[in-house]
Amino acid sequence: MKYLIIIEKTNTGYSAYSPDLDGCVATGDTPEEVEKNMHEAIEFHLAGLKLEGLELPEAHTYSAYVEIAV
Of 10, 23, 32, 66, which is the most exposed, with the fewest CB atoms less than 10 Å away? Predict the structure, then answer.
């Protein structure tokens, strides 16, 4: 499965979340670290859902940029 993650710069490093996976978040000191941590968090999150016998969420979000002349 492929899930979109959003990575944001914070005052102390970086944070990430997936709009498709409520409550699944990660942090890190660098963009690379937060991406790695988010990968691990998603694996852990999905394993927990499987263990509980719950359905794995379908990915339903996507990203796009819009260009605005200013």
Answer: 66
DSSP state of 14: E
Give the amino acid at 4.
L
pLDDT for the residue numbered 66: 96
User: Is the CB of residue 42 less than 8 Å from the CB of residue 18?
Assistant: yes
8-67 tens-digit pLDDT: 999 999 999 999 999 999 999 999 999 999 999 999 999 999 999 999 999 999 999 999
Domain 1-70 has CATH 3.30.160.250: yes
Q: What angle do CA 30, 60, 58 make, to 5 degrees?
A: 95
**Maximum CA extent, the chain:** 51
Domain boundaries, the chain: 1-70
